[in-house]
Design brief:
The complex is a heterodimer of chains A (173) and B (312).
Chain A (H helix, E strand, L loop, with lengths): L1 H21 L13 H11 L3 H17 L9 H17 L3 H4 L2 H25 L7 H33 L7
Chain B lengths: L6 H22 L3 H36 L1 H23 L1 H18 L5 E10 L8 E4 L12 E3 L4 E8 L4 E5 L6 E6 L5 E6 L4 E6 L11 E4 L13 E9 L8 E6 L8 E7 L40
Antiparallel strand pairs in B: 1-2, 1-12, 2-5, 3-4, 3-12, 4-5, 6-7, 6-9, 7-8, 8-11, 9-10, 10-11
The chains are: A mainly alpha (173), B alpha+beta (312).
Chain lengths: 173, 312
């Protein structure tokens, strides 16, 4: 059941991946912009069980690794996303105070974006990636956190709706 | 109640993590299948990105116009005055033609760079979430572009082709934190290494601690073996400040890149370098200050005239 639901969600993530690559990367937004696939995957994970969260992270991570603008080896984002999505799902699963409140989900997603980028940096350092100055890193982290806090509420409703349909929990909405 | 997890769940996480670690290992070891996967994705995505670039451009232009409203007005004024100046210059063309003939002879003697280039349009800007600075251009291996080729704009160095696909290529910008290039200072020929910092400013570190670097020095590419990845003589930027710390082993300086990476639209990829090193021939000319016309006014105070006195 879970695997079937996960497979059903793959067209959504493929669509988001295409949208990210074709449109979002064209927008020269101030403060560095955002990664829609990362945000959608974290919201999806926040609404799912930890296992589905980890699988979602795996799928989204592969997509982010295949992105043309990804300079890192394939598997880097995958590893980060598995951990991030599992963690987000773990914190929200079974706690209606978290899952029932959109603000908590937005907070979890935004914190997830920030922490996943920090994890990405740490793994990047271990793999010998150049990361630039501290000032630049802080600027990018602040910028993506800012954009995630703006974008998450905008797409939360749509993702919740799709998630409920895929997992057959629409009656709980 | 918090989720405690079960054996099946833990096994799934372990399998996924191990798979991702396997991907990283295979990619770092240069396994063809993994490389092919990314190349295939990019080949498939390239038309979608081109469509996206076409679809988003009106919105992007609108945003750019709004952000640069004041600047656009100033630019209009500047262009108007330049237009008037050009009209006047056109009238003096006959005189200039004769001068140009002489100048051409001098320039031929000095030699020019003579790079063979392929022009390309920027179709995508890299995501900053990866802490890198990249762009994607709409020309690839079918146009003769290969990885490790120098990319230029009208002002100077833009970066280097990181990966080339059939109809597109990924360019690592000079501002990328991972970017390194051997440089020399125009004139003095001192050599050093310039590294990107994620902004429009780079840092150059001289290799010799006995040499000096000054504010305003022009930084040029030193060139690589067989001119790949870097062709020699390409202007990169200008020194804006020098770090003169007494304890430093070598001198370092901040360099402002000539190219503005956030407004790149058309770039050129050098597919074939010049037969000889152009040396300092490509150093941009320094702007000359326009002399302001002055007028000297002499003013002399009026001499007091004797006032008539009343007599009875």
């Amino acid at each position: 059941m879970s695997l079937r639901s996960f497979l059903l969600s793959s067209p959504l993530f493929f669509g988001v991946f295409l949208f990210q690559e074709a449109f979002v990367t064209q927008l020269r937004l101030p403060f560095g912009g955002f990664n829609l696939l990362l945000i959608v995957a974290l919201i999806w994970a926040a609404l799912s069980t930890p296992e589905i969260g980890a699988l979602t992270g795996f799928g989204a991570g592969i997509g982010m690794d295949l992105s043309q603008t990804s300079p890192v080896p394939i598997g880097h984002w995958t590893l980060v996303m598995i951990i991030a999505c599992y963690a987000v799902a773990f914190f929200s699963y079974g706690d209606d105070n978290v899952r029932g409140n959109p603000i908590n989900i937005i907070f979890l997603t935004t914190a997830g974006v920030l922490l996943s980028q920090v994890a990405y940096l740490l793994i990047g350092i271990m793999l010998g990636q150049e990361i630039g100055s501290i000032q630049h890193i802080l600027f990018i982290l602040a910028g993506t956190t800012f954009w995630s806090a703006i974008i998450s509420p905008l797409c939360l409703k749509v993702i919740s709706y799709l998630h409920a349909n895929v997992f057959g929990t629409r009656n709980l909405l | 109640m918090r989720y405690g997890g079960d054996n099946r769940g833990r096994l799934l996480i372990i399998v996924l993590v191990v798979t991702s670690l396997l991907f990283i290992t295979l990619d770092l070891r240069g396994v063809q299948v993994i490389d092919g996967l990314r190349t295939g994705t990019q080949t498939a995505l390239s038309p979608v990105q081109k469509f996206g670039s076409w679809a988003v451009s009106p919105f992007r232009n609108f945003l750019s116009d709004v952000t640069h409203l004041g600047r656009t007005r100033n630019q209009l004024e500047k262009l108007k005055s330049e237009n008037d100046k050009l009209r006047l210059e056109l009238q003096n063309r006959e005189v200039a033609d004769a001068q140009l003939k002489q100048l051409k002879g001098v320039l031929d003697l000095a030699g020019t760079a003579g790079f063979k280039v392929v022009n390309a349009k920027v179709i995508s800007q890299g995501s900053n979430t990866s802490f890198t600075q990249t762009i994607t251009i709409d020309a690839g291996t079918t146009s003769g572009i290969k990885s490790n080729m120098t990319v230029l704009s009208g002002y100077g160095l833009v970066g280097v082709v990181k990966s080339a696909y059939s109809t597109s290529a990924l360019v690592q910008l000079a501002s990328d934190p991972g970017f390194r290039i051997g440089v020399r200072i125009a004139g003095t020929q001192q050599i050093g290494i310039l590294s990107g910092q994620g902004t429009r400013k780079g840092v150059v570190q001289l290799l010799d601690n006995t040499t000096l670097i000054r504010k305003g020095d022009v930084i040029l590419a030193r060139g690589s073996d067989n001119s790949r990845p870097f062709v020699p003589g390409v202007p990169i930027g200008e020194v804006t400040s020098v770090d003169n710390s007494p304890g430093a082993v070598t001198q370092t300086a901040d360099v402002k890149f000539y190219s503005n990476f956030s407004t790149l639209g058309i770039v050129a990829v050098v597919v074939s370098a010049a037969a000889s090193d152009p040396r300092d021939a490509l150093v941009p000319p320094k702007p000359r200050p326009t002399p302001l016309p002055t007028v000297t006014i002499y003013a002399t105070p009026p001499t007091p005239s004797p006032s008539p006195t009343a007599t009875k």
